[in-house]
Amino acid sequence: MNDGNATLATPDMEGLKPGFTEPVFEAQEAFRTVLNTLSYAGRVHTLATELDPPAPLDPATAAMALTLFDFDTPVWLDATIQGGAAPDFLRFHCGAPLVAAAGEARFAMIADPSNMPPLDRFAIGEDRYPDRSATLLIQVPALTGGPGMTWCGPGIDGEITVAIAGLPTDFWAQWADNHALYPLGVDVIFAAGRALVGLPRGIQVEG
Amino acid sequence: MYVAVKGGERAILNSHKLITETRRGDGAVPEVSVRQIGEQLGLAVDRVMTEGSVYDRELAALAIKQAQGDLVEAIFLLRAYRTTLPRFAVSEPIDTAKMLVRRRISAAYKDIPGGQVLGPTYDYTHRLLDFALAAEDGVGLPEAPVADAPLDDGMPHVADILDHEGLIEEERPDGDGAEVFDLTREPMSFPAGRDQRLQNLARGDEGFVLALGYSTQRGYGGNHPFAGEIRMGEVSVEIVPEELGFAIDIGDVVISECHMINQFEGSKEKPPQFTRGYGLSFGHNERKVMAMALVDRALRAREMGETAMYPAQDEEFVLYHADNVEAAGFVSHLKLPHYVDFQAELNLIRKLRQEHQDRLEKEAAE
Amino acid sequence: MNAAAEKASWDEAYNFAYLDEQTKRMIRRALLKAVAIPGYQVPFGGREMPLAYGWGTGGMQVTASVIGPSDTLKVIDQGADDTTNAVSIRRFFKRVAGIATTEATEEASVIQTRHRIPEKPLKEGQVLVYQVPQPEPLRKLEPRETETRKMHGYAEYGLMHVRLYEDISRFGHIATTYSYPVMVNGRYVMSPSPIPKFDNPKMENNQAIQLFGAGREKRIYAIPPYTSVKSLDFEDHPFEVQRWPQACALCGARDSYLDEVVLDDKGGRMFVCSDTHFCADRQEKGHRGPMAADPAAGAFARSSDTSARKEGER
């Protein structure tokens, strides 16, 4: 849509998976779940979606895209997502410009977290506009069963133990650096299947 | 007995009925039609379209009727309606040099290629009430004479004539190929680009822009303007549908445009050059476009390296206060109940007065 | 899709909840950033609403972007469900979203408010939407947005403390009684909107999500649940809320915010709860204030009683 975008082939309409059947209501429902997810950080929230998105996207990851992306939101995709039918799906249903440079993205979709770029590759906002930062949608194998970490900060009553699985070993060290930038920094929403966990920049995480 | 704001829904519904009745007025007088407003109160329609940011004579006329002729209210109605309209396309820039001119004058030259075209204007009417218009049977169907020959096809902009000699600054777009700011979809941000400023002024309240423009003439803004050119007429609007890939004409709009020519002292790097101020509105509204062009020039203080000392040069002041839908809303919101906060203030002032009294008594006792 | 959506019915001349989907997405994205940066004002492309600026357009846009067919909406102005502007906004959402409405704080999933926080503590999952006339707490000290944005950017809040201290030296107290500035999550000074400072403590560690919409100024901000919200004060002049020597004349409550109601032109007045639902609820449970049997108080109670409200709730 503008010059900085990676060029992609015309969507192959044949194999295109459907988006929301009731876009107005499904987007509203999904948004409320995402709002709760980022507001009550660290808790598992579940989406009631019947989406059947193209691989490798899980329903929760795809539902967030359909709810939040449009032609105003440059989106960065990791290599796993780039490779499949997902780019056509996102372009067709959201009209979102897909960008090659991580730093230009408002949203990033990551389905292979073990190979994800470091957090500091993404936009962290500006002193006067910390909202001009990226939101990372990180799809993980599971939201529980990983190494248990203690989270605290806005949205958490005291502290909470969260055990996201499948993250790179240095993820939490990177997160500490990201949190130290507060009020700048990226925000993360983890997704697995139909479930979500929110990790806004204000959350402090300790092992 | 206490009544005031409690009472709710029924009071609101009855108030709506009352305003409907009041709007209709005396039933013995024929009801004015939206078409009559569109045809016979055309300049009001033009203003409402401009500040309402919707080019639709019928909707603007309807808004004027619904608002009982309160133009600021009509502008608000049109803006609120605008919110519900989907956006299909963004037009190509209109080319006002190709305008089908109905009026075009320059105060900077005696004669200009294409000629001075006086067109329909109240400028040289004597402002005497015309009682013929008040006659029961009206004025009939007055007809103006038709010119012997059509106007020239070529009506170059006066500023372009100066441009050939390098006497006026080049007109260059803000940023290279950057998208044009869209005030209707993005919040204002500062420092503002000229695109944002011009959009704001075009939608801005005519009275506010007029007063600011006037202030620059009276010394609050070091302006030395010449009305380089004012033109009014039809221009065609084109869009490029993505599936076609070439421009198609989607209709004509009537617009007014003003190029103000202003002096500029020049600098070590630049030889002396005239500078520009620009104004544009829907329909026919010269007062607005001239005032807008004056304020546009004043707001360019920063880029011209001038010290911004006056209200018309202060972009936050001008841009934040020009919109009459915002201004009217916020002033009128004082009509809403504020009794919770007033109670908080009452509470405090009683306490402060009591403490004051206690202090005086204590001092007197000592 | 849920059953509520299938039953949703509204004025279909408009999209559900009035705003088009693209506008909702833009506002929803702004809301998520607002929640991620508590107290920070996110600029958003506010739209003109069919209600005047300053009358709740920001709150309405936030509510319209949040609300769905399974929600129940409560709208209050000055704490009351039946003030004209609350009625008007509730009517709007009934028309454009066919939404269920309530006066009961505990039954509402979304509460839009002007100038009050309900007395009854909110619960997890509830959303409180504030209408905000002026989102910038520093605006009266510095009219320029370019300057105030810088001050927030570098957390330079000295000017605000100086202003509050000047009050103390002049009046012996901080003379701000409403819109009393708060520090959110230890980082941003935020305007709580023109709620009386009585309500400020309710913002801290609230279980609900608090969203703030300023339509004319085109700003959205938020306080997530369980977040630190401190009213600015000084060690030697700690923050205090308003207290009344009287109890509510109708329900006898001693811990609620009271409105002063003038009964005649001879100095007759009574004090009643500003939160009409809280007061009615207490009266239903048998609580009585000192003037509950008074004829003037009775007239007041009738003028705001359920007959008018029920009509609005059809």
Explain this structure to me?
The complex is a heterotrimer of chains A (207), B (366) and C (314). With 207 residues, chain A is of the alpha/beta class. Chain A contains five helices and nine strands; from the N terminus they run H-E-H-E-H-H-E-E-E-E-H-E-E-E. Chain A has helices spanning 23-39, 59-68, 79-83, 86-94, 171-180, and strands spanning 45-46, 75-77, 107-110, 135-139, 149-152, 159-162, 187-192, 195-199, 204-206. A six-stranded mixed β-sheet of chain A has the order 1-8-7-4-3-2. A three-stranded antiparallel β-sheet of chain A has the order 6-5-9. Chain B is 39% helix and 12% strand. Chain B has twelve helices and four strands. A four-stranded antiparallel β-sheet of chain B has the order 1-2-3-4. Chain C has two domains: 2-137 and 179-231, Rossmann fold (3-Layer(aba) Sandwich); 258-313, no CATH class. At the A-C interface, helix 1 of A face helix 2, strand 1 and helix 5 of C.
Are there runs of chain C of 5+ residues with pLDDT below 50, and where? 302-314
Overall geometric form of chain A: globular
Structural domains of chain A: how many: 1
Give the strand line-up of the largest sheet of chain C. 1-9-8-5-4-2-3
Strand content range of chain C: 15-25%
Largest interface, per-chain counts? B-C, 51 and 73 residues
Tell me the major beta sheet of chain A: 6 strands, mixed
Biggest β-sheet: strands ordered side by side in the sheet of chain A: 1-8-7-4-3-2
- Any idea of the CATH topology of chain A? Rossmann fold
Question: What overall form of chain C do the CA principal axes indicate?
Answer: globular
Number of domains of chain C: 2
Number of strands of chain A: 9
The assigned structural class of chain C equals alpha/beta
Order of helices and strands of chain A: HEHEHHEEEEHEEE
Oligomeric assembly: heterotrimer
